[in-house]
Amino acid sequence: MDDFVPMACSYRLKAIHGGASTMTRRSILLGCLLAAGLAGCGPRLETVENYVLPVSEAGKLCVAQCKQANTVCQSAKELALQTCRAQGVTRAQAEYQGYLTSLPKDVDKKKIKTFSDFNREPSCYSNLTCYSDYKDCYKSCGGRIEAQTYCVSNCKEMVPPMPDGSPVGPKTTL
């Protein structure tokens, strides 16, 4: 197990390897592996989408309507998230006020909770699917969406090694 050590951690592990106990070495190795995993040391891929407009004027007008509908959808999605967050703050204020009014008159001031103890981030989400709806609309207007995946960093670790920025795989039409 001690033979597999990410490059970023290998020097430090070798420097303390001599006098460290087996448990300490394993803890350090586990920490190094975790850090390397979180750092994403392997090749990093990104997919770029290219939107090709329809040829006809009617198709271009249709795409303009898709863009407008997407803008409205994004605004509605953001409003829903802001409303949810505001409701969370309102709920926290009510809970905090209820807590304060329930305290006995002779309470130790140092033990009183603060508003931040009640103001937890609510789990807000929106089920609006603006992006996929826009893509479907765009294609229904006669537009084409082409996707190409690129290796953007650490590409030398690929088999075969590639320079950063290289396309990976064929260009696809979505």
Description:
The protein is an alpha+beta fold and 174 residues long. 49% of the residues lie in helices and 16% in strands. The chain has 4 helices and 3 strands. The protein has helices at residues 7-17, 22-39, 57-102, 130-140, and strands spanning 44-52, 144-153, 166-173. A 3-stranded antiparallel sheet has the order 1-2-3. Helix 1 runs antiparallel to helix 2 and helix 3 (57-102) runs antiparallel to helix 4. The chain starts with 6 loop residues before the first helix and ends with a strand. Mean pLDDT is 81; it is low at 1-25.
Low-confidence stretches: 1-25
Question: Helices and strands, in N-to-C order?
Answer: HHEHHEE
Structural class: alpha+beta
Distance between the termini: 44 Å
How many β-strand stretches? 3
What is the averaged pLDDT score?
81
Silhouette: elongated
**Proportion of beta-strand residues:** 15-25%
Q: Major sheet, described briefly? A: 3 strands, antiparallel
Q: What is the helix tally? A: 4
> If you compute it from the alpha carbons, what radius of gyration comes out, rounded to the nearest whole angstrom?
27 Å
Strand order within the widest beta sheet: 1-2-3
Helix content: 40-55%
